[in-house]
Specification:
The complex is a heterodimer.
Chain A (H helix, E strand, L loop, with lengths): L1 E4 L1 H9 L3 H7 L1 E5 H13 L3 H11 L3 E4 L5 H10 L3 H14 L2 E3 L3 H9 L4 E2 L1 H10 L5 H11 L5 H10 L2
Parallel strand pairs in A: 1-2, 1-4, 2-3, 4-5
Helix pairs in contact in A: 1-3, 1-4, 3-4, 3-6, 8-9, 8-10
Chain B lengths: L9 H14 L3 H22 L5 H8 L3 H10 L8 H13 L2
Helix pairs in contact in B: 1-2, 2-3, 3-4
The chains are: A alpha/beta, B mainly alpha.
């Protein structure tokens, strides 16, 4: 599975200490705007997660994808009112080299869902690894519990049920 | 910086005066501080309801996206993904096995 990830999802996985296992087993790519939102700007304020994400990019676990200019996609982005990192996540996905978008943002998910773009939440990534037998039930529960304080209750309880 | 003329009700004037006294600033600065808090509260409320994205909430609050995540957590807003969205996300996770 080839995933394009947004800033929200990447930061949450990092803080939940789940990013390494995700990056080692799933091909994850981000646009440079997401790198700016998760590394360049937070690093100036000393956020530890920014340094960890940067290390992943340097050792090749996290890829930065190039966006191909497409006036039709730009027009879609404009008419849908998508901005910031999400706009480039969408542009990167539309380049056709990826299977799914990973995000934890209700509004962004609502927009891409209306376009039939497949999406996956941070906890659904853990479920994916559990179903692929990369993680056992206990390990998956630990990661989901690490995410608990950063995700909605609906997301948390449904995820926990899936890995029991 | 722009100067705006606004009408304040008695209760708001009371709030501004109280803030000015507590913070040791003049009433104009107190009003600016309260407005900033108000805008941030409004941004977090819109995010919670899923009406704006995290990046939009950060822009509206004039903070970085990373800082916005901290603000949301401080206000007890964990995430805003709906049950329906999570069901669909799990379905997709199985589809790509």
């Amino acid at each position: 599975m080839k995933v394009v990830m947004d800033s929200d999802c990447l930061i949450k996985l990092t803080r939940a200490k789940a990013k390494e296992v995700v990056l080692r087993n799933i091909e994850v790519c981000i646009p440079s705007k997401v790198f700016e939102e998760t590394v360049t700007i937070p690093k100036e304020k000393g956020y530890p997660d920014a340094f960890i994400i940067e290390a992943n990019q340097k050792n090749g676990l996290l890829l930065i994808g190039n966006i191909i200019d497409d006036p039709n996609v730009d027009e879609m982005v404009k008419s849908l009112g998508i901005g910031y990192g999400e706009a480039d996540v969408f542009r990167l996905f539309k380049s056709g080299r990826y299977d799914i978008i990973s995000s934890d943002d209700r509004r962004f998910l609502k927009i891409i869902d209306a376009l039939d773009v497949p999406y996956i939440t941070p906890t659904a990534l853990i479920i994916y690894l559990f179903n692929k037998k990369v993680l056992n039930s206990e390990e998956a529960k630990i990661y989901i519990n690490n995410l608990k304080e950063m995700i909605s209750e609906e997301e948390y309880y449904l995820a926990l049920r899936e890995v029991e | 910086m722009e100067t705006k003329k606004i009408r304040l009700t008695d209760d708001l004037i009371k709030g501004v005066s109280y803030t000015a006294k507590m913070e040791g600033v003049d009433e104009s600065s107190a009003l600016s501080q309260l407005l900033k808090f108000g805008v941030m509260w409004y941004a977090t409320s819109l995010y919670k309801l899923g009406k704006i994205t995290l990046a939009e909430a950060a822009e509206l609050s004039n903070v970085s996206l990373r800082k916005m995540m901290d603000i949301l957590e401080e206000q007890g807003i964990k995430g805003n993904v709906t049950l329906k969205q999570q069901i669909k996300a799990i379905d997709y996770s199985k589809k790509f096995q």
